[in-house]
Design goal:
The complex is a heterotrimer of chains A (about 375), B (about 180) and C (about 100). The N and C termini of chain A lie far apart (about 50 Å). Chain A has 2 domains: about 1-240, Thiamin diphosphate (ThDP)-binding fold, Pyr/PP domains (Rossmann fold), CATH 3.40.50.970; about 250-380, Rossmann fold, CATH 3.40.50.920. Chain A is built from 12 helices and 15 strands. By secondary structure, chain A is an alpha/beta fold. Chain B has about 180 residues and is α/β, with parallel strands linked by helices. The two termini of chain B are about 25 Å apart. The chains are: A alpha/beta (about 375), B alpha/beta (about 180), C alpha+beta (about 100). The interface between A and B is medium-sized, with 29 and 20 residues. Chain A: Keywords: Oxidoreductase, Pyruvate. Chain A: One of its GO terms (molecular function) is oxidoreductase activity, acting on the aldehyde or oxo group of donors.
Chain lengths: ~375, ~180, ~100
Amino acid sequence: MRKLMMGNHALSYGAKLSRVQVIAAYPITPQTQVVELLSEMCANGELDAKFVKVESEHSALAASIGASAAGTRAFTATSSQGLALMHEMIHWAVGARTPVVLGNINRAMAPPWSIWTEQNDSLSQRDTGIMQVYCESNQEVQDTVIQSYKVAEKVLLPCMLVLDAFYLSHTYEPVDIPEQKLVDKYLPKFNPPYKLDPDDVHAFGGLTDAKWYYELRYKIESAIERARGEWRKADDEFGEIFGRKYGLVEDYKCEDADIMLVTSGTITGTARVTVDMLRDEGKKIGILKIRVFRPFPTDEVRDILGGAKKVACIDRNISFGQSGVFFEEIKSALYNSSHRPQIWGYIAGLGGRDVTPDTIREIVKRTEESDKPQELIWIGLKK
Amino acid sequence: MIEVRLHGRGGQGSVVASKMLASALLKEGKWAQSFPEFGVERRGQPVTAFLRIDTKPIGAHYKIYKPDHVVILDPTLLGQVNVTDGLKKEGWIIVNSERAPDEIDIKGDFKIATVDATGIAIKYGIGSKAAPIVNTAIIGALVKTTGCVGIKSVLQTIREESPSKPEENAMAAKEAYEKTRTT
Amino acid sequence: MPKAKKIVWKGVDDMPEMAVSLSSMRVNKTASWRNLKPVIDYDKCKPCGICWKFCPEPAILLKEDGSPVIDYDYCKGCGICAEECPRNAITMHREER
């Protein structure tokens, strides 16, 4: 069934289709509608889940971790300051190996107060071990919730699904809602090897000295590396059943491209429209969309960008004192690669500044005209 | 691709109007995208909503700067907001007004349509007399002038999605559809 | 009473994915930490429950009549019960193991 829905509701429907059993969340703009709809679904019996009202985002994730440790499928959603407050618990969810799925609406961090989109909130969680997936359409949001549980429960790691504030969260688009029985076939019941169980009692996350902590960190890294393959498998299987596939990355017309743009989130769709216009004008431009950010798709990035002459990375974020985060990651993936293209780094769209086809055109133009890569170009800075 | 921009005031239902139009387009097998001007909306404050229409999935995610048509839910906005900003030549300007199209003071190479959406909304008791909700009526005028979507699927959508008085809302849209005046 | 299985592993390959303890407290008894042992003189004890309230472990259980019993599997010998007992019915004795 095709239904018009906002990105926030696509998250809710994804959670419902995944038959989540526990939802613990605290409202924050621009995430509010995600949990509004889920609480309605719980209240009217459409969804058989326990909705836990909490007093903060820290508690929201803590409750989700508890629920997951008890062997139930848990969901939470937040944004910006709320995600920052969850930070301690994100480390916990990873260490405890609880496959909670967390929807994060990208919103800029204060001060000054802003409710508009920017990726610094989610990218600040880069080194926690939580998986991260960046979505560009409401359909992808709904589908990725389902895929996230599939992968997260296989490798026992939490997963953060990321969408742009307003550009997706409050934008209504058609979304195909799959049949529940097909989703059930795709996503089996969550059954962790250890859980809070009165018949087989264990302590979780207790004091572990240097004798074994090191090995447990190694296990997390092995799991997230294994997740690369699991994402590919989960996406292939999803494609077979539902007819939609997204990949860890998407290659749009990169094959013969002189300049490859690197994008994430909703900027991708706008870039695709622009690339079509530029191609009509005879310019060979391609796009590499990064969808799965953690685990980082190193092989795909090397494979696709290895064939480029010039790469222009567009970052709706900034790692102060370095560069855009995606720029940094791309560079790092290519350093030990046999072919290393020149890479330009562009900062665009911070705090919800609109990234339009004109913005993309300017990025392409500046990359075309330049011979020496620049790492930190602020596009559209008012001077 | 057709792009429409709606200007209204918080509480008049501009965002819902664009959403209902998108829903109706979906019924016709078309693709649509509806979104508000991203901000903190308050009753009475000027608000903007956007609508994209296409025959294929819409990937663009940026605001609409060069609309094909503009819808104005509140005539008092005419002096306050630059409603023709970026409007394409020959584009429709659909105004909620008791006046005739040639009495509307807008200069430029545009087509103007008017309909008394406020009067129609009050007639059918939609909203209150002090704050009538004019969105469903103005939809009727947009459908009549641009033909971007059929009146039948619009009326069906209004009946299904109106949070209250679905039949009255549908009748308001139908009456506006019939009473729209054009230049 | 809940059951518990002790998990034993050799190295990174056979250890559990999750940071679960080697086993639960049902298996990991903590009495070996104790060098002074509290003993209740039931002639002096008028079951008031104060020792039960103060025991931080908790290693003092209450019987149906309200009288306390010390769970020597988990008592770490901190002596708080002996300190708090208003009738001095609990005394600390040297452990002999």
